[in-house]
Amino acid sequence: MDAASLGEGLLLLHGAGGRALVWQNQLLAFPRARALDLPGRAGDTPNSVEGFVGALRAACGTGAPRVLAGHSLGGAIALGWALSHPGEVRALILLCTGARLRVAPQILEGVRAADTAVIAQFGAMWFGTNPPPRQREKALALLGATPPGVLLADLEAADAFDAMGELDALRLPTLVICGAEDRLTPVKYGRYLNERIAGSEMVTIEQAGHMVMLEQPRATNQAVRGFLERLEQEVGHARDS
User: Fold this and answer.
1) Residue range 114-137: average pLDDT?
2) In the sheet that 10-13 helps form, which strands lie side by side, from edge to edge?
3) DSSP character for 94?
4) I need a labelling partner for 192 at 20 to 30 A (CA). Which of 83, 163, 174, 234 fits?
């Protein structure tokens, strides 16, 4: 099966302060996938994971995705969607995220005060030790273009998210992808997900920080492709049995 077919029904959800453009390398690899800006990028932003789930479900209408791929806050939204509407989601791909996403109080306070130095500090933590310069510049430009109020609502949603006691309820094929150099959602966050979501897989990508899909796109796409291929094989076996 080719990559285009594998991307059918795949919805990509970005993290706090980002835009759908952070998935540019995945959209090239899986052109039938969709990447949406989270609701409220121009204002009226939900400040809870539940609010994001509701807005995205409404936006998708009858075209609900089969596979949710979420990065950071997007991963929390994917988890929240799967837990609250389990029949709608076939599988999860969780990138650089966790079952709980507490945000450092000084970051929240700085963003609340629209302190550009604090916002820049937050952006600097997105990357590992040697990110591709152009990708780094593009990602930080997206962050810089995000109104502080929107970024604050994103971070408040992340900070309030806590699904640590609910993961045992998930019965979905799940791929957990971590960046070995991630300072915002360290590898231990991914390990926690992997240990508590029955049957999940975990891949740690070297030389990547929090923006793993930008820093190491080939390795990220390879992990996603392998997971989607295994999903299709399982469906084929189920049909044949």
Assistant:
1) 93
2) 34-36, 10-13, 67-71, 91-95, 174-179, 201-205
3) E
4) 234
